[in-house]
Each structure stands twice: as structure tokens, then as C-alpha cells.
Amino acid sequence: MVTANEIIKATGVSYAMFTRLKQLGIVPRPQVRGLGKNKGLLYSYPDEVKDIVTWVLKEHRCGSTLLEIADRWRRGEVVEEELATTKANPDQLHWATDLYAEALGRHPGEYDIYGNIESTQEQDDGSLVVTVKLRKIPRK
After folding, report:
1. Whole-prediction pTM value?
2. Where are the domains positioned within the chain?
3. pLDDT tens sequence across 115-126
4. Three-state DSSP class for 99?
5. Counting Cβ atoms within 10 Å, is residue 89 exposed (0-12), middle (13-18) or buried (19+)?
């Protein structure tokens, strides 16, 4: 999870544009967590928001308006895949990233693909089940 300030710093998006992306529904609502009595709130976004904002900035630089980008985003298809298990030591994170790359390879070049590894679960036999959530955005 990342904060709005971390996203803004990592992507170079302005605070005003980040706010507009939230209003348009491109950036999901943050998770809100209390920091304790009289200490405020912490607003956190999924890590994938950095990739989403980077994609929006790229599309905006190519001449698309934010409304056009938002429309394309809404037309995107969320694909959740539970990938086949693979025998691996759970400490070997590269197995999960290899499976993620395999899932991306299933969606050919007519889409921009964004996503993240949602979870990895160790099975009783020592294998891993990796769940990947992908968002396909049709290219112009």
C-alpha cells in the first residue's frame, strides 16, 4: 500500500490531476486507517495505482483528454486468474513473478496490461497458488 504523496512523488503527477483521477474513478478509493486518538488518519492506495497513474500520464501526453482516458479505463476488463500451482519453496518470490509474467503473456498486444500479484498461498504439499489480478485496457 502507498500514500498519495508517494504516488505523486513516484509518478510526477500533480496533486490536482491526482485528485481529478480519483473523481473520474480511475484511481480507486483509498483504504482509511486511524492512527490513534487525535493522531489523524492514514489514506493508503494499492501499489498498482502507481502503474495506473503512469499509464494515464502517458496517454495524456499522447493527446487523450482525461475524460477519454476515463472512458477507456471503464471499458477495461478486469481479469482475475488463479494460475496453476507450481512446486516451489515459498521463500522464492521469483516463482510468483514468473507466473505473473506468464499471465501477462496470455493477453496479446492489442491491450495495455496492468495488474499485480494479489496473493500467494502455500499448499499442504509445498506448492504455491498465485492469484493475479489484471486489467486489460484496449489500445487506441
Report:
1. 0.59
2. 1-75, 77-140
3. 666 677 777 877
4. helix
5. exposed
